[in-house]
Amino acid sequence: MDFGLSSEQRMLQDAVTRYLSEQSPLGHVRDIAAAATPYSPDVAAGLADLGVPGVIIPAAFGGMGLGLLEAALVAEALGFSVAPVHFAGAHVMAPLAILLGGSDSQQQAWLPKLAIGAARAAVAVSQAVEGRDGAGVIARDGWLDGTALFVLDAADADLFVVADTSGALHLVAADAPGLTQIPLTTIDKTRSVGELRLTGVKADPLPRGGSETTRRIIDAGRIMLAADILGAGTAMIEQAVVYAGVRVQFGRPIGSFQAVKHMCAEMAAALEPCRSLVWYAAHAFEHAPEESTLMACHAKSHLSEVGRFVARTSTEVHGGMGFTDLAGLHYWFKRIGLDRQLLGGPELVRNEAARVQGWIAA
Amino acid sequence: MDLTYSAEHQAFRREALAFLEAHRHAAPRGGGAAQRPSAEAVAWQKLLIAHGYAARTIPKEYGGYGAAPDILKSRIIGEEFARAGVPPGLQNQGISMLVPTLLELGTEDQKRQWIGPTIRGEVVWCQGYSEPGSGSDLASLQTRAREDGDDFVINGQKIWTSTAREADMIFCLVRTEPDKGKHDGISYLIFSMKTPGIEVRPLVTMTGHAEFNETFFTDVRVPKTQIVGKRGQGWFVANATLKHERGMLGDPGQLESRFLALAELMRTETAGDGRIMDNPILRDRLLRLQAELAAMKFNGLRVLSASANGGDAGLARLIVKLQSCELAHQISALAIDALGELGALYDGSPHLRSHGSWQQAYMFQLGLIIGGGTAQIQKNIIAERGLGMPREPKLATEEGRL
Hints:
The structure holds two protein chains of two kinds.
Chain A: H1 7-23, H2 26-34, H3 41-49, H4 68-80, H5 88-101, H6 104-115, E1 121-124, H7 126-129, E2 136-140, E3 143-152, E4 159-163, E5 169-173, E6 179-184, E7 193-202, E8 204-205, H8 211-246, E9 248-249, E10 252-253, H9 258-287, H10 289-317, H11 319-323, H12 330-341, H13 346-356
Parallel strand pairs in A: 1-4
Antiparallel strand pairs in A: 2-3, 3-7, 4-5, 5-8, 6-7, 9-10
Helix pairs in contact in A: 1-4, 4-8, 4-9, 5-6, 5-8, 8-9, 8-10, 8-12, 9-10, 10-12, 10-13
Chain B: H1 7-23, H2 39-51, H3 71-84, H4 93-105, H5 108-120, E1 125-128, E2 144-148, E3 151-159, E4 169-175, E5 186-192, E6 198-203, E7 212-223, E8 227-228, H6 234-248, H7 252-268, E9 270-271, E10 274-275, H8 280-308, H9 315-318, H10 320-339, H11 357-370, H12 375-386
Parallel strand pairs in B: 1-4
Antiparallel strand pairs in B: 2-3, 3-7, 4-5, 5-8, 6-7, 9-10
Helix pairs in contact in B: 1-3, 4-5, 4-6, 7-8, 7-10, 8-10, 10-11
């Protein structure tokens, strides 16, 4: 009985955190945020050297063969450093979809390349979470038509995992005839979200990629987004505490005023239990599948709420400086803001949690 | 992350289940939670001690079971008794606060005299710490103990002395050296509540019940030998017990059972056109609380694991009192809101739901948010000890108040 991380798990997280603090400092994040594509190939290459793209891909396909908890620890480290790279879609949801739903040949074709970062995959499942007017991909007679919005980790993708209106998953190569890619601009300039338009695109369905597989990858994606918020929130609290310790007004550090101290305590009190919730949700994904969807919902919705509170409160602790671009705090604020909306906002996710428990009709 | 129990712990769980199966008929009815345990409850407590399900780690020579500390076994006992709906060992301030203090700092005579009867439930204690003028700033307490021959003579007033009406004994902080600094002039005395000069007045709270008392001392004579620790060390001695009190609060199992009762209420009670659960706004609030509860439950496991492995979960532990008291209060608040007008009924009114327990809990839990270190004091502790933030200049020091 040990509810905690192993030393190997800590080492993995520390390695990613250390790499990012050296190779992806705020200056680099700013450069990427100002560039046309919110994605850093350099940082992605460095993370590939650490094995990050293959974190959950089995060793047989050249990956690290680790679990979703390890993936969550990586996601937390990425959020902590607002790393301008792919993760939840490209390195967790897409490989998971191919692992759970793909044929042998699909797995052989893609997983070894995805595991080492030689190919990148993006995920288009937004419609399976919540339908939007004008969106939806229809599969008919082996052809795909329609529009997919909020494609995760869209930049530079070689492959798209696309959910059709029935919830079934298909693979679409980036160079498939009839496919148009349109970048979407969100508040968060550290991650790439896109739109796909499909006009008579040849479908390559995942044979076991039905709605159950879609459900699983959405659960996993939600846990990754929750972990990303956890990391970003942790960084925002650390920055608030440091700032409150050095910023002097009325002749004393503002952190010695209870009004400021209590804001920091409230952030820490709200966020600290989230760490255990994220760990457990990630653990349950593999070890307690009957609880998995509920825990993924709880992690996503709760971290979204706590993340919003921390993002806003940390900014306030920084006073006027927090509102400026000089402090750069807004990169974390916006990261949390995007995580909250992706794969379902908290109200939608909580309603799913009620359905999963049979509290309302499915 | 390994959430399975070792073979030894699994075997221990089976033993506990077998014990419950064999003895549950002897458990006191009504849970034995009354402030003065009944004869039946005392007999049950003795049985539990004999089998190691109460006073488990108290040494045998003082009347305990004498097992080595094992936090997971304690948890298994708690879980299985709760699941079986069988009252666990007695929980009162004597057992949770005085006994650990005596074990740590008492004389051999004090240990032999008091620990056995206390853990068996034969002697009931109350705590004399807070005063009308000394709440969060407890060390400023003014109840005076003047030296007179072989006795201390005590004058002053204590407040929040729960169980004072039923108690045989009190453990009490008094000022013995008024000329010394505020932390250095306090002593920790234990004496009988039947000593002449003690008056107990029930303190009625917003719930309408007198869960607490005010206790007045007028020339109360206590032999000098009834001190725990040395003169002037009372603050240090008391901190040993406050540490145990903080540990008592915020039991996630209790939060979970309140939550399950709330979910059940919302599934079964109808309002308007359907079940309360069908109201999307109330349902959303319920799910919000459930997520928070899950976070607190796993946070509790993390704190427990750290402690079982000889470590300290730090921030994860420091936030427990603040967060769980607030969560408990919010669970009650939602139950009241879900009941609408019915939620306002109280005191045995017709149409009362859940015996009026939600309003009662909502009010009492506000008391818990304030008591045992107010939410604001908790936030100071989290910020200063957990986050290393600077202290308030000239703030009364709170060292050791964990």
